[in-house]
Amino acid sequence: MTHSARPMIPEPYLTQLLFANPRLAPLWAILRIYVGYEWLTAGWAKVTNPAGVWVGEKAGTAVTGFLKGALAKTTGEHPDVPGWYAWFVQHVALPNATLFSYAVAYGEVLVGIALILGLFTGLAAFFGGFMNASYLLAGTLSTNPLLFILATWLVLGWRVAGYWGLDRWVLPRLGVSLPVGRAGGGGRLKST
């Protein structure tokens, strides 16, 4: 049995430049580290909160207050929180507030560390964006729209976003091809 070649869709120059060219790795590193710092500081404040309302003896207290505030935003002609998300908050998140409290606090720290180190950048950015989307669905703006946009860009640019980070060494050991620079030409994907 022979394997036929899979058809490939060529990548346009602009997307190749933005998302696959290691010459832009410094720009992606700045973006990645900024988003990582935002996540790390937010999560660290929760983990080390002296009142223990996120992690500790009163874990779940802060999440419960946040979620009840989200439920209050489900009324009116144009509610801030969609009905299906309100159902999730009421029937899944609130009964498990302590679990969600730990998941949020440590999730933010882990996403922040991974992004700062450039380790599993695309995956970390995806989970960061997922948390941003959750906060947005709960009717909270703050920095969430900006961080969601930046996380989306990091997911798109994962190949070079972690190139100036641990991804450059870890991902190839896991069988993932990363871009390699060539003199005079743009970055090309290394074939495996």
Automatic annotation (TrEMBL):
The keyword Acetylation does not apply. Its main location: membrane. Keywords: Membrane, Transmembrane, Transmembrane helix. It is found in: Membrane. It is a multi-pass membrane protein. The chain crosses the membrane at residues 109-133, 145-166. This is DoxX family protein. It comes from Deinococcus oregonensis. The lineage of its organism: Bacteria, Thermotogati, Deinococcota, Deinococci, Deinococcales.
